[in-house]
Design goal:
seven-stranded parallel sheet, binds flavin-adenine dinucleotide, five-stranded parallel sheet, about 25% strand
């Protein structure tokens, strides 16, 4: 099968380690490509990325194009954009996906404006479907789906007349499937077209902030909402989390109230999580909160209002004041272990 018309993913990497969002997008690209009957391609650039290129095949890529160049050690916009534009011109994909990360949000609009194609930012879902516009029917178009107007509507955006159709996709919203080591694919080294004139920025030093909250990697999350009542009361959420080995999450309203930092926010404008167990304490279950946690394997809700919408998606519900329920929960747990 030819790779022209493929679904292509821009692969983000650092020191040869591929970003999770890129692997999530490869899995989604596989799904879209299967529906379209085309191949999945990937573009990866860096100082030393041949090994990382090989790691993409088990996730569903048919052909990886990689460029190695000393000057690509760290992401900088000009050389990376130049390479991505060239890769798209050479390979003619019909769809190109980028993570909605700092890097993806930087390169994707540059590529879009150079190629004069559309770009939808921050998608939360992608589908294939048909579209009729001014009497013309477009088959197998990319539906680029994202919340709009402050999250009050879900917009489906299409760009049927220009190829490639391009989107950035939020981290964590697409599911990363298990890799299949037996999958076969092609790894193609492409010559670097970078010249010294393309290097406009010299990176003198990079300071990495230590990641203190790891919601995405957590198997268990205890989240608190406005119902927790105060910053001081959030100690209850931390106590329960420490007791059962969980990470601490929060609703946006709890973050806005100053109970906890934004790093802990779960939901549409926070982190999307899929833990084995999610315990929602004093969280009503707004659509924006659910968008970030409703694919948790098990949900327990603690809420004083029996009508709270969170009970509609929870497998286990405890109606009561969390200030009484949580200490009892901890006591009961400690008694069993
Ligand atoms: C564009 C946009 C993006 C948004 N993004 C996000 C997002 O990413 N994440 C997010 O969470 N929200 C987001 N929101 C906000 C969202 O709409 C809700 O306002 C928010 O989720 C509500 O938080 P909450 O459930 O903590 O508060 P509330 O809705 O006020 O619910 C508090 C709950 O606590 C219960 N309660 C009160 N006291 C107790 C007690 N003592 N014991 C037990 N239960 C008690 C109440 O019964 C109630 O159900 C967004 C909104 C918009 C417009």
């Amino acid at each position: 099968m030819s790779t022209a018309n493929s679904v292509m993913v821009f692969i983000q990497q650092e020191d040869g380690k591929i970003a999770d969002v890129s692997l999530e997008l490869v899995c989604k690209a596989r799904d879209l490509a299967n529906k379209l009957g085309v191949e999945v391609t990937a573009a990866i650039f860096g100082k030393s990325v041949a090994k990382a290129a090989g790691e993409l095949i088990p996730y569903g890529v048919d052909e990886v194009f990689y460029v190695e160049d000393e000057r690509l050690l760290h992401y900088t916009p000009v050389p990376y954009t130049k390479l991505m534009i060239q890769t798209i011109k050479d390979r003619e994909p019909q769809i190109v996906l980028y993570g909605a990360t700092t890097e993806g949000r930087d390169i994707a609009p540059r590529v879009a404006s150079n190629l004069k194609v559309g770009l939808t930012a921050d998608c939360t879902e992608l589908q294939i479907g048909d579209h009729v516009q001014k009497g013309t029917e477009y088959k197998d178009i990319l539906y680029q789906i994202r919340p709009a107007f402050g999250g009050n509507i879900i917009a489906t955006i299409v760009s049927p007349e220009k190829k490639p159709q391009m989107a950035t996709v939020r981290e964590g919203v697409m599911k990363m499937e298990a890799p299949d080591p037996s999958r076969k694919g092609t790894i193609t080294k492409v010559d670097s077209i970078i010249t010294d004139d393309d290097i406009h920025t010299e990176i003198i030093e990079r300071i990495k902030e230590e990641k203190l909250v790891d919601l995405k990697g957590a198997q268990i999350i205890v989240s608190g909402g406005v119902g927790v009542g105060s910053k001081e009361n959030f100690k209850l959420i931390y106590d329960l989390a420490h007791t059962i080995g969980a990470e601490v999450g929060a609703s946006r309203a709890a973050v806005d109230a100053g109970y906890i930092d934004h790093d802990h926010q779960v939901g549409q404008t926070g982190t999307t999580v899929r833990p084995k167990l999610y315990i929602a304490c004093g969280i009503s279950g707004s659509i924006q909160h659910r968008a970030g946690m409703d694919e948790s394997s098990r949900i327990i809700a603690i809420n004083s209002d029996p009508e709270a919408p969170i009970f509609g998606i929870a497998q286990y519900g405890i109606v009561g004041d969390l200030k009484e329920v949580i200490p009892n929960f901890i006591k009961a747990y400690k008694a069993r272990v």
